[in-house]
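User: These chains co-purify. Model them together.
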Amino acid sequence: MQTVVHLVSGDETEQQTALAIAENLLADESGDIDDVAIVVQAGGIEAVTAGGDAADDVRHLLEDGVPVKACSNTLEMEGLEASDLVDGVETVPEGAVEVTRLQDEGYAYVRP
Amino acid sequence: MQTVVHLVSGDETEQQTALAIAENLLADESGDIDDVAIVVQAGGIEAVTAGGDAADDVRHLLEDGVPVKACSNTLEMEGLEASDLVDGVETVPEGAVEVTRLQDEGYAYVRP
Amino acid sequence: MQTVVHLVSGDETEQQTALAIAENLLADESGDIDDVAIVVQAGGIEAVTAGGDAADDVRHLLEDGVPVKACSNTLEMEGLEASDLVDGVETVPEGAVEVTRLQDEGYAYVRP
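Assistant: Joint model of the three components:
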């Protein structure tokens, strides 16, 4: 099974929950979770900036092989560049399209 | 691919994000998104009232062919009539049932 | 059709909405909803504690046959025991894994 975590909230607690849930999905001992992806957009983008409070958690997830995909529409709206994000974070044209694509491929959706 | 956007939050920023994401899904240049629908309930209902701050954004989505479906249970709880909503917003008996039906038909789910 | 309601928010209004939506799914007169489940984790856990404000609503849902599944990772992080929860609430190792499993079995996902 596969899961996409949608990091879309500007609330710091919800952002921390999203990252923790991604870690817990990875750590799941049932062995039923094959892949986890994180799609970041809107208020959630702050959580994946290189200078953000959650940057170390994001690095840890990237090191564990979780793709972190940031929405280019959000970057543009927030006046951010891809280079402002934690190294290794990818960009996609639109977060919700990526979330749709992943669900279409069979990923379950979780929005903490 | 098809996507249902669930406009369920009473938070104005999350409401604006939901409407913007629906627009972005429509505008997606990959051509992979065939249909977008919005289901509105609970705290989200304010966003689709005729006098609400987001009314123009809702009209724009309706003009672009996005069905906007408001939960009748929410209208009743909030003492609202269908006539209080932006012209063209439909009603459904229960928003979460509609969201379930759309997912059952193959729509991906996005909750901004 | 089947629906899983994800009770993951620490916001009391969103918690009440989640429980009300579960009731509304059950009460749906179309007869299209066969099963409803609630998965509780992160900030949502307060809503299913025996002493919480929503305890009576949770009992009512359990009496109506809705399984309520609390995340053990959350219990541990919050220093709670299963015995602190409303009688009848089950535990699962990780809420997001359970949400993934239910979607994999065909449940639609709703995150109020």
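Chain C has one domain: 2-110.
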